[in-house]
Design goal:
Layout lengths: L7 H14 L4 H10 L4 H10 L2 H8 L20 E2 L2 E9 L3 E8 L4 E8 L5
Antiparallel strand pairs: 1-2, 2-3, 3-4
Length: 120
């Protein structure tokens, strides 16, 4: 994560989005706060403000998938974007969407954040 060009709150938001997208639970959330003490208070405040489906993923890694079709891009599970095959949409926020994806070249699952067209 690049920390130079964004506000501390935006940095905390990105950290929390990455945590949620990776299936983080409550214990891992506290570890995240310990790793980033300068963002801990913002992280805790953002977690309380997160939509219920995102908050639930902090405590229950087995998430209920959100709908698999996506707004302005018309994306769906199974679609390939470059080296990535989309599996399921994990969430949507003000900046864009986060998808669970399979990176073909390295054979690993990743969280892929797609920015909304008006944010690019």
């Amino acid at each position: 994560m690049s920390t130079n060009s964004s506000s501390p709150l935006e940095q905390a938001r990105l950290l929390l989005e990455e945590h949620i997208a990776s299936g983080g639970d409550a214990a891992n959330f506290e570890a995240l706060c310990a790793e980033h003490p300068d963002h801990a208070s913002d992280l805790r405040r953002l977690r309380k403000q997160a939509p219920t489906d995102q908050n639930a993923s902090l405590f229950h890694p087995q998430r209920t998938p959100v709908p698999t079709t996506s707004g302005p891009w018309g994306l769906s599970a199974g679609k390939t974007l470059g080296d990535f095959t989309l599996i399921q949409r994990l969430g949507r926020g003000g900046m864009g969407e986060v998808w669970e994806a399979q990176q073909k070249s390295l054979g690993r699952k990743v969280a892929l954040k797609l920015l909304l067209p008006e944010r690019v």
